[in-house]
C-alpha cells in the first residue's frame, strides 16, 4: 500500500478489525485500546470518539496528542516489510500500530508490548 493509500484508510474501519484479531486470540478490546492509547497519547474517551466517527489514518495520527517515544523501539516485520526501515512517517506509524496489535494477538505480555 502506498503512503497516499494508507493516509486515506479510515481508522474507523480498521479499528474493529484490530479488536476482532485480538479477541480471536483471547485478548480483549480493553487491551487493544491500551495499546492504541499508549502509542498515540489519546485517552480512552478520545479513542472511543475516533472509533465512532469517520477519520482517516492521516487525521488520526495528526491529531494524536503525542506519539510515545518508546515506539521507536518497535521493530520487526509487518506484511514482509521491516517497520524500522519504512521511510514515510505516516506509513511507519500505521505499521507500528499493526505490529503492536500483532504482538498482542500472539500473546505477548503487555509490559513487553508497551516497551516497559
From TrEMBL:
<dbReference type="InterPro" id="IPR023204">
    <property type="entry name" value="SP1917_dom_sf"/>
</dbReference>
<dbReference type="Pfam" id="PF09966">
    <property type="entry name" value="DUF2200"/>
</dbReference>
<dbReference type="InterPro" id="IPR014580">
    <property type="entry name" value="UCP033199"/>
</dbReference>
<protein>
    <recommendedName>
        <fullName>DUF2200 domain-containing protein</fullName>
    </recommendedName>
</protein>
